[in-house]
Amino acid sequence: MMHYKRVFPFFLLILCFGFSACGPNAKDLNTSGIEKLKNEDYEGALEDFTKAVEKDPEFAESYLNRGFVYGNRGELQEALADFNKAIEMDSGYVEAYYNRGFIYGFFEEFDKAVADFDKVIELNPKDAEAYINRALIRSRIGDREGELADLKKAAALGDPTARNWLDDNGVEWEDAGKSSDSAENPE
Asked: Secretion signal: which residues (predicted)?
C-alpha cells in the first residue's frame, strides 16, 4: 500500500508540469488582468491579457481588454486589431464596437466610426453614451441634423450632458424618442 501512496503524488506532479492545465486558465488570467488594470498596473494587465489570448485564442474578452490597454498606451493599431478580433469572434460584442468606434474616430475614419456606433445602438438602443459619441462624430462630418437627433435621443434617455447642452442652446428635446419608445414599449 505504501508503494502506491508514493507513486500517486509523483504521477500528479508529472501531470501538472507536463500539461499547462495546472496553471491559470484564460479566464483566470483575464480576471487577473482586470484587477491589475483597476490598480493602474498597465504592464501587468497587458501581460495577463496576452497570456490569456495565448492560452485561449477564442476568448474574445481578452482581446477586448488587451485592446483597451493598447488604446490607453497610444498603440492604436494594436488596439484596433484586438477590437477587430473580438468582433470577429462575437459579432454582438457591444464593448468592442464601442471602443473600435473611438479608434476610428481618432483616425478620422468617420464613416466607420458612425457605423460602429450604429451597431452599438442597434444592439443596445438604451445606451445614451453611444448616441452622444455618434453625435460627436456626426458633428465632425457636418451632419448637424444627425447630431441633434442623437443628442435629443440621449437627452430623452436621461443623459444630463445632452440635456444641458440642448437646454443651453435652446433646442427642444422633451418629446425626442417618445414615439419610438412607445412603439417599442406600448403601455
From this structure: 1-21
